[in-house]
Amino acid sequence: MSPYKLENKENSRIKKEKMLQSIAKALCKFTARRCINTSAALSHSLTIIGASGGLGQCLSMLMKTNPRLKVLKMFDRRNNPAASIDVSHIDSCATVRYYVGNENLHKSLQCTDIVVITAGVARTAKAKDRNVLLEANAAIISRVVGMTAQHSPNAMIVIITNPVNSLIPLAAEVLSKHNAYDPKRLFGLSLLDTLRANTFVAETVGRERGSIEVPVIGGHSKDTIVPILTQCEPPLCLSAENKIAICERIKNAGDAVIKAKEGKGSAQLSIGYATKLFCDSLLAALDGVTGIFSTAFVASNVTNASFFSSKLRLDNEGVSEILKLPPMDCVEKNMLEISLKSLEEDIKIGIAQANKPSPKTK
Fold first, then answer.
1. What positions does the entry give for substrate binding (predicted)?
2. Please, which of 206, 285, 286, 338 could form a disulfide with 292 given CB 3.0 to 4.6 Å?
3. CB pairs under 8 A, 24+ apart, for 276-280?
């Protein structure tokens, strides 16, 4: 085929995609106005991809209780309506809608404010290698993110599926190809590492759980998690031995769950809770609540890594500010250096995966 014809075909495709995105944005804004006029407190829609899985069911139950949510959309490629029926019996305000099969994926994504992706192969004893997980989960993330770009281009996208360090850069590439990438609206779930740090430190010093906050930066894998124990709030005096033990426990917490499940599964309940907290923050920010802070793996410029997890401020557009990194001692600075080297490789792998030619285009 002539290169001119190929170029014209590509230009036509881009124009058509832009037109469809414009229509989708207009419809979503119209729907949002109708929701706000009907009920200011219940104006948001959230879609969970992979809702029939263990994590998806847990998250669906938790999000059903959020008073800001008007519609909870549960999607899974498998026909398993039991979870959606069960969740729908909870007497909170959100309406539950269930979608099954890849042919209905687009319906679950239409005019939604937040898309949470839990689908994919989970870490187990047989699938602990994150490169293996990337190969298995890249196609799922690409499909869902690409369809979100077409049907809800303004949606906040939260990816839980591992490996987060590579799948967030991959998702950014996919969104860019659809002319729908907004770095403020793409998040990798890393808040669980912070919750684990808070819990383990409180246990070590004999404090009440929930009374201590520990900054955790870097990424969401053993080599990239960097707990900043010198900046606990309130300040604590931890011995060097305690710091080493706590850091190792935080970094290996995911493996501890896999071991406890005899290699047949990974964390579901704790990450479901962490995701609920993060989505609660997003929903509050969408409603205009100020002073909302959380932690996530996002496009960042606070280090030389193009994607990084650290504390950030949220508003109704997504990320409004990425806070400066906390002060660190020599040990923590060394951990950060190791983390950045590993992150750089993870990010490159994700971008390369996104740009692999599909079998049809080889």
1. 123, 130, 162, 196
2. 285
3. 276/59, 276/62, 276/63, 276/66, 277/191, 277/195, 278/158, 278/187, 278/189, 278/191, 279/46, 279/63, 279/66, 279/114, 279/116, 279/158, 280/66
130 known member of a binding site: yes
CB 46 within 8 A of CB 63: yes
Q: What is the CA radius of gyration of the chain?
A: 21
Section 230-256 average pLDDT? 95
32 is in an annotated binding site: no
**Tell me, what DSSP letter sits at residue 1?**
-
Q: Give CA 107 to chain center in angstroms.
A: 21
Give the tokens for residue 189: 């779930």
CA angle 262, 267, 273 (to 5 degrees): 150
Nearest-angstrom CA–CA distance, 294 and 310: 8
Is pLDDT above 90 for 11?
Answer: no
- Taking the C-alpha atoms of residue 22 and residue 27, their distance in angstroms, rounded to an integer, is 9
Q: To the nearest 10°, the Cα dihedral for 117, 121, 127, 132?
A: -80
Tokens of 40: 């200011």
Could you report the per-residue pLDDT of 275-333, keeping only the tens digit for each?
999 999 999 999 999 999 999 999 999 999 999 999 999 999 999 999 999 999 999 99
Residue 161 annotated as lining a ligand binding site: yes
Q: For residues 83 and 40, which has the higher predicted lDDT (pLDDT)? A: 83
- Encode pLDDT of 183-210 as tens digits: 999 999 999 999 999 999 999 999 998 8
Q: What is the pLDDT of residue 275?
A: 98
Q: What is the pLDDT of residue 126?
A: 61
Q: Residue 78: what are its φ and ψ, rounded to 5°?
A: -90, 145
- Contact yes or no for 222/252 (Cβ under 8 A): yes
Q: Is 123 annotated as a binding residue?
A: yes
User: Can you give the pTM of this predicted structure?
Assistant: 0.88
Residues belonging to the active site:
220
User: Which domains are present in the chain?
Assistant: 44-189 (3.40.50.720), 191-347 (3.90.110.10)
**Contact call for residues 214 and 220 (beta carbons, < 8 A):** no
Percent of the chain with pLDDT over 90: 79
Q: Tell me what the pLDDT averaged over the chain comes to.
A: 89
Task: Answer yes or no: is 162 a known binding residue.
Answer: yes
